[in-house]
Amino acid sequence: QGLSLPAPHVEESWQSAEFYGNKVLVQYRNSGPSGEPHVAYIKKLKEVSTALRDYVKAHHTTGPAWNPSGGDLKTFKAGGGGAAAAAKSIPAPPPPPPPGFFDEPRAAPAAGGGMSALMGELNQGSGVTTGLKKVTDDMKTKNRTDKSGAVPGGSAKPQQTTAAPAAAAKKMPPKMALEGGRKWVVEHQVNATDLVIDKCDMRQTVYLYKCEGSVLQIKGKVNGICMDQCKKTAIVFQYAVAQCEVVNCTSVQIQVDGSVPTIQVDKTDGIQIYLMGEKSNDVSILTAKSSEMNVLTKPANPDDDMLESPLPEQFESKFDAKSGKWTTVAVAHSG
C-alpha cells in the first residue's frame, strides 16, 4: 500500500541516508586521526545496508517469509548451518531491570491522610463546620469603631510626580530679510503690526513662516506670496504675478488691493479673503482640506456693507449611470 518491495525499500532508505553520509565524509576525510572514526562509521553503515539489501532480496522478495510448517518455539534449538553459527555468535541478552525501574516516581502522600482524608472531611456535611470559631456581633466590621471605612483627613499625602516639566518651545528670533535678492523671508514675527516691504519687484517672492498676531504690508508687484504655519496674521498686498498661497494656517486674513490670478488655500482653519481692487474679483480660489473660509467683496453701492460669501467645505458626489462617471457638487446651506 504505497511502499516499495523489501529490497528496493532498503535501497531507497540507504540512498536517503547516503546524502548526509557524504557530507560527513567530505568533512572528516582529510582531517587526520580525529576524523577516522567518522569515516569508518559511514563505510560500515554502507556495508550493513548493502548486506541487508542482499539478504532481503534473497529471503524476503515480496515481504516477510514465514515457515508455515515450523515447530514450537519453546522446543526450538539452534543447530547446524549458517543460521546456527550466527546464533552462537550472538551474546546473551542482558538481565531484565529490577521491578519498578520504569515506573514514574510518585509524590509522597501528605501527612494526615492526604487528599482522601480531605475528601472524607468534606463529605461530613454540616458537621464539617463544627470546629470553626463563631463570629460574634462585636467582631463584625460594621460594628467595630477601630475599623472605619473612612479615610482620615490629612493622613495620606498625594504622591508627587517626579516627571520633569515639559520643555518649553524654543523661541526663535524674528527675521525679516531679502535673501539672494529674490526672496523676502519674514519669520517668527509676534505681534508685529507694522511690517512693510516697499522695495520689491516682480521677480521676488515673499515667504511668511510661523508668524503670530502680525500684519505685513507689501507695496508694489511681486511674483508670489506664501504664508506657512501662521496664526492670526494678515497680509495686505497690491499685485502678485503668480499666486498667493496659504498653507497650515489658523485665523488669517488676506487683502488684495490690486489683483492676483490665483489664491490657493490648503490645510487652513479660518481665513478671510478681502477683494478690494477693481479687478480682484477675477481671481480663482483653490481650496483643499480647509474650513471657515469666507470671501468679502466690494458692493456696487459704496454706502453698502461688503458682500460676504462662504466658500463650500462639504461636497456631494453622485454616480451618473449614463456617463459612467461620478459628479461632485458643492453642498449649499440656506438660512
TrEMBL record:
GO MF, any single term: actin binding
Region (Disordered): 78-100, 122-173
Domain C-CAP/cofactor C-like positions: 173-313
PROSITE patterns assigned to the protein according to its UniProt record, in alphabetical order: C_CAP_COFACTOR_C
Superkingdom, taxonomy of origin: Eukaryota
Classification via PANTHER family: ADENYLYL CYCLASE-ASSOCIATED PROTEIN (PTHR10652)
Any single GO CC term annotated in Swiss-Prot or TrEMBL for this entry: cytoplasm
Residues in the signal sequence: none
Family: Belongs to the CAP family.
Alphabetical list of Pfam families matching this protein: CAP_C, CAP_N
Positions with biased composition (Basic and acidic residues): 134-147
Name of the protein this chain belongs to: C-CAP/cofactor C-like domain-containing protein
UniProt-listed GO biological process terms: actin filament organization; cAMP-mediated signaling
Compositionally biased intervals (Low complexity): 156-173
Record field: compositional bias (Pro residues): 91-100
